[in-house]
Amino acid sequence: MNIIFLGPPGAGKGTQADAISKERGMAHISTGDMLRTAVEVGTPLGLRAMQYMEKGLLVPDELVVDIVAERISKNGQQKSIILDGFPRNLNQAKALDETLKSLSYKLDAVFCFAVSEETAIARLTGRWMCPGCGANYHQKYMPPQQQGKCDKCGKTLQQRPDDNEKTVKERLKVYKKQTADLVNYYEKKSLLRKVNADREVKEVYEEVTKALDLLTREK
Ligand code: AP5
After folding, report:
1. Which listed site, 9, 19, 92, 192, has its alpha carbon 20 to 30 Å from 152?
2. Backbone angles phi, psi at 142, to 5 degrees
3. According to the model, what pLDDT value does residue 134 have?
4. Has this prediction a pTM greater than 0.90?
């Protein structure tokens, strides 16, 4: 079962991909996480990517496409994959088709998470991340037990540099202009499944897992 989570920033792709991949033993492949690691380590890729990420712009395709292809090829056929935040435009989608074909992977479904702009802004500007274990919190919707500290590893929580209101608005604009067209691309391939992501984490999770169970039975 190989799937894509598509949707605007703040739709909850990462939250759902994290839970579902852990529960089902799938590989969670997030280009945002891969790029943030490269920025943190200070690799040449990270240094170039950072200039785009801090402005809320897409990192150029030539920097992203190859790292995803490499990551999928390293996965072998051992685990099913959830792609989170990739592809982000038509060029990346076509490159992904080629990669999957060359590695004999079949794409089973594309879940498109829809949220209002208002919800996305509230979720992102209130998000806190753990720099140690990557756990994700929200000051209102998913607060840690002790304010400012990670429940899992106790590290001090941080905000992502691109989660300020100005950059979030830019990211939403970029999504509309460059990524939203992928909905048509995958609809034409009969792979698209729309998810109302403007609901509680648990409700979204139940909808996606139900659809996955159905798909598994149909396979
Ligand atoms: P990336 O890290 O992929 O960010 P994004 O797409 O903007 O998505 P987010 O992680 O912000 O949102 P999400 O939908 O995953 O929501 P989450 O579950 O975290 O990309 C960052 C940057 O990297 C890009 O801007 C770009 O520069 C670059 N990049 C990445 N991929 C690229 C690519 N393919 N090509 C080019 N450039 C690329 O949830 C958000 C918050 O809401 C959390 O606090 C969470 O706790 C809370 N929350 C989640 N669900 C709910 C819910 N149902 N109810 C209440 N709160 C919720």
Report:
1. 9
2. -145, 65
3. 87
4. yes
